[in-house]
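Risk register update: the risk of archive-format incompatibility is retired. Evidence:
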Amino acid sequence: MLTGEYRNTIDEKGRILIPSRLRLALGENSTLVITRAVDPCLWIMLPPFFENIRSKIMDDPGAMFDSNLRLLQRRIIAPAMECEIDKSGRLLVPPQLRESVSLNLKEESVMLGISTYLELWSVDAYNRFLNDSEADFSAASQSLSLLLQEGGR
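Archived output:
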């Protein structure tokens, strides 16, 4: 399971060190897929997880005629790139993906483990997200409380 919040600097070549705890959770997998997320960050995931998302968006015969699916195809599927973790545990984040979410070279970033995938944020964007989503978080917490109570009966 991929969990935790980590702060790392993107080096001058656009690489970020995957923390050792996350590398252990990834096991022998050295190939990851990086794409734009719904929020202003990048999603980093194992190829089978990405393939599951890709198939849901692409495999319906009418997918190219559905405007919502075309939007998802262009925003999530098209920019996706397979990238290798090098022997030092670093992942090259392609320039066009870095630039799309304002991740700058030689600046600190935030990597979040979200169970089955990772998110990569600029520090500024992540702090804005936390501040802007505080009210929504309280409401979601209340919903979770109700869900947990129902599941416990």
